[in-house]
Write a structure and sequence with these properties.
Elements: H1 2-22, H2 26-43, E1 56-57, E2 60-61, H3 67-75, H4 81-88, H5 93-100, H6 104-110, E3 121-122, H7 123-132, E4 154-155
Parallel strand pairs: 3-4
Antiparallel strand pairs: 1-2
Helix pairs in contact: 1-2, 5-6
Length: 156
C-alpha cells in the first residue's frame, strides 16, 4: 500500500511540475521534480543513486555542453531591447512573428548582428514594434525605432 501511495505522489508531483513549466515558473517546477525524485528513491531503494559518485560519465565530463546549448547561450548573451520586451511578456521572437503572420526567419534576422546574418528591419515594422512595446508607467517605448534597438539598421 505504501508503494502505491508513493507512486501516486510521483504522478501528482509530475503533473504539478508540468503545469509550472507551462506557466514559465521553472524554479517551482524544479521543486516539484525534486519531490518526485525523492519519492522514487523511497519507492525503489538502490535504484536511484542518492549522490553522484563522480561527475564523469565514462571518459566524458557530465557538464560538457552541446552545440545547441552554446547557440542558445550566445543568443541571450547580449539581448536587444526587442528581445528584452518579449522576455518581459514571457514570449519569444518566433512566437511574436507567428502571431503577426511574419516569416520567423526574417524576424529573427532583424535581431542578429550585421556580420552574423543580420538584416535591416523595415521602418514600418520598427515603428509598429515601438508602438506595441510601451512602458505602462512612463508611457515611453521600450523598443525605440532607431539604431540602438536594431544593430543591422532600419531600411526605408
Amino acid at each position: 500500500m505504501e508503494k502505491l501511495r508513493l507512486l501516486a505522489a510521483v504522478v501528482e508531483t509530475r503533473r504539478a511540475a508540468d503545469a509550472e513549466i507551462a506557466a514559465g515558473r521553472y524554479a517551482e517546477a524544479a521543486n516539484h521534480l525534486s519531490v518526485a525524485v525523492e519519492a522514487l528513491r523511497r519507492l525503489t531503494p538502490g535504484w536511484l543513486p542518492s549522490e553522484p559518485k563522480s561527475r564523469k560519465l565514462g571518459t566524458m565530463d557530465a557538464q560538457e555542453s552541446n552545440r545547441g546549448a552554446s547557440v542558445a547561450a550566445a543568443r541571450t548573451k547580449d539581448p536587444l531591447p526587442f528581445q528584452l520586451a518579449l522576455f518581459g511578456r514571457n514570449s519569444s521572437v518566433p512566437q511574436w512573428a507567428e502571431a503577426k503572420g511574419l516569416e520567423v526567419e526574417k524576424v529573427k534576422s532583424w535581431v542578429k548582428r550585421p556580420k552574423k546574418g543580420g538584416r535591416r528591419i523595415p521602418r514600418e515594422w520598427a515603428l509598429k514594434i515601438a508602438r506595441e512595446f510601451v512602458d505602462p508607467v512612463t508611457g515611453q517605448t521600450l523598443v525605440p525605432a532607431d539604431e540602438s534597438s536594431w544593430p543591422s539598421g532600419i531600411k526605408d
